[in-house]
Amino acid sequence: MMHRAGVCIAIAFLGVGCGVGEEDSLVAKDPNPSKMVCTDAFKVTGTWTAGTPVRDADSPTGCWPVGTWNFTVSLDPTDTEILDITGDRKPDRCGAVSATKAATFDGSYSFVVTRTDDGDGWVDAYALTGAVTQGSQKVWNTKVIYKLDVSEGGAGECEGGIELYSADGKEYWNLKPSLTGNSIAGFGNYALYEETQL
Asked: Which tens digits make up the pLDDT trace of 77-106?
């Protein structure tokens, strides 16, 4: 996966809304059009090891993600990031919703960012450690890699973005590790769907 350095891709996790002011306002709106079953949230912690090229005098500040990002996740016990899927004003956390279990996650995550100058500027490439190509997909730990990138900003100097799906496309992990100095912190979200999202 290759991207130009400095390109910021905003990813909206999920949005559930109602059709206020639409013509057919008497028709009941589906409170769960994306067919989610439940959601969960994570906290992210880890460390970063610099790679080459190292930051130079031309880039004294800002995002310089080149190197190895290692981090782990843990369940966030607060309900702040848990969505209300059913519209009953209560969080629909996986494990608390009937016939579901708490979100699963891998023991650790690691990806490498390399940076080269192609003559027109820096070009970044990202690789999730241990990922393999299967057909037209990149797969890691039985999960499909939907997106892997790093952008400037977020809660730190750089914010990583890893989006993974289960093989059947019904489970979704969206992890946002943020780099400040050599430390990684951040958050993540999980969603379980009734139908495949791939």
From this structure: 999 999 999 888 999 999 999 999 999 999
CA distance 164 to 197: 11
The total of other beta-carbon atoms located within 10 Å of residue 178's CB is 20
The 10 Å CB-count burial string (b at 16+, else e) for 153-176 is: ebebbbbbbbbbbbeeebbbbbbb
Q: Which residues pair with 171 in a beta bridge?
A: 192
Q: Nearest-CA neighbor of 30 among 22, 41, 21, 18? A: 18
154 has a pLDDT exceeding 90: no
Q: Could you tell me where the beta strands, DSSP code E, fall in the chain?
A: 2-4, 36-50, 67-75, 109-117, 122-128, 132-134, 137-140, 143-152, 158-165, 171-180, 183-193
Q: 43: alpha, beta or left, given left = phi > 0 and alpha = psi -120 to 50?
A: beta
Do 108 and 45 contact (CB within 8 A), yes or no? no
pLDDT of residue 15: 45
In this structure, are residues 136 and 155 in contact, taking their beta carbons and an 8 Å threshold?
Answer: no
Q: What are phi and psi of 80, to 5 degrees?
A: -55, -45
